[in-house]
Amino acid sequence: MKRPLSALPAVRPGKEGRRLYADLASSPAAVRRAFYGELAAGDWAQVLAAARAEAGTPYALWADDPVGFVEDVLGESQWSRQREILEALVVHRRVAVPSCFGSGKTHIAARAAVWSSVVHPPGTALTVTTATRARQVQRQMWPHIRQIVARAGLPGEVGVTQWKMPDPYGSDVVVAYGFSAPDHDESAVQGIHAPRLMFIVDEAGGIGRIIGSAMRGLLTGEHTRALLIGNPPTDDEGSWFEQTCADPSVHVLPISVYDTPLLSGEQTRRCRACPPQAPTHLLASHLVDRQWVEDTIRDHGEDAPFVAAKVHARFPRGGQARAIPATWVEAAAEMEEPDVDGYLPLNGLGLEGETSEHLVRPGAWVRLGVDVAAGGGDEFAIGRAVGDLVEMRHAAAGPENADPVAVAGVVLREIRAAQQLAEKLGSTAPVRVKIDGNGVGWGVAGLVAAWGREGQHAAETVVVIAHEAPGRDDEAATLRPASRRDEMWLATRALLAPRSTALRLRVDRRTLAQLSAPRYGTNASGRTVIESKRSMVARGVRSPDRGEAVLLALYEPQPRRRKVRLVA
Predict the structure, then answer these.
(1) What is the pTM for the complete model shown?
(2) Looking at domain 326-567, which CATH architecture does it have?
(3) 185 close to 211: Cβ distance less than 8 angstroms
(4) Element (H, E) at 151
(5) 415-468 residue pLDDT tens
């Protein structure tokens, strides 16, 4: 196709146009495509006009050729596994794609949605997209659909999650829409019917069993198709997505990172999905790269469920439990900003160096956590909690971290910034800074405390000694910590637990990875023990310095009466 269909003139189909359309429509897709490039613009206009008159849509020639639709009508390129997914939708009623990170899965699912919506006459087909959260539907899938429709000049009007097109009688009919369903609301997927139905499930790994079972009832008609695509869940063994992929009636196309072009060596064509103003680049530049894979394995460990799911596209089975499941961490990272009056953006408080747009509540308690580097390869990290908002304020490795005075100076700088923030917010509680007191940390804590006595800051200083006994002990608790460090990890685990998470994690990818990296087990006394930093490094995983800075910011040991408290 030389130019977009929308640029061709509207004509009445002539006898020759109808004959040409009939010949093409009766030929296999591969044969048709061999002729497409030879057709002049006038011939194309006649063929499309005939298709509209005969089949009710000008795109009828691509009803059995979604790959051709993406390339010929949309003018875009795909990599090999994306083409396989589209081709499978023609042959198989249900196609499942357990996919790694960064494979372009939502990108190709949106193209499939557009294809299925326009190759049949309006009113005779319906495309429904869903995902686990409304945000995923509204901000991931449907922006793709709106962009595709606008750029290709396709008919109809696309809203936030709905696409309407005029039918032959001039009435607007819905040809596609998107929704999200609560985990236990099976009624949300009932009553969806159409002569031809395409059901597209994005982020399928997060779909609950009740909703999944209800969706299965929709996929019974002869002309019903489903595309289920997403990362395998990291912490839900035997999930609905896993069970669906094990169903012999489902065509499964897994995508590992090692299948993607930048790791397999596959050559891709120029990307044509980006705006024309963007610099010329290959399609592969949008996909996962080797550096991400290496960093992910180093952050989580080769045997981690996160690596099994996001790298190998496998459903994790067995393995040692993680102190904080990766899905809990991801949920806190994806937590929406508060949609209530009264919250203020950090960058609107007039504080020097505050550029973040994250919202904070007036009066929120400001706390800092400091993990001091134990060795040359470790990082000195500072986390900050402002009410339910958690951020990383500093993370650096290097020889200067061995100097307690230099490290304490950075801590003092962050304390003063935290105090200014607390003052702007009208906080009544003093800033509290909790410092890892092992090794160099003991000297750092001593300096910070001394500077407080000298009036250089007004923060409460708490020294946390990791190996000491926990400050609290609930005999009825399922997980009873063996030490202060174990208590710190379990306290944050409780804050991130599903349906009770009260945190917004606005931290970098490495910090998120470190929060879900350590394993946990029990000692001879039945106490819960979190994997040590030394053990993690021995199995090739980074020391969770950034993660523990976050934990320290959130952790509140048993208070003592002295202003400077030595606790574990």
Answers:
(1) 0.74
(2) 2-Layer Sandwich (3.30)
(3) yes
(4) helix 142-152
(5) 999 999 999 999 999 999 999 998 889 999 999 999 999 999 999 999 999 888
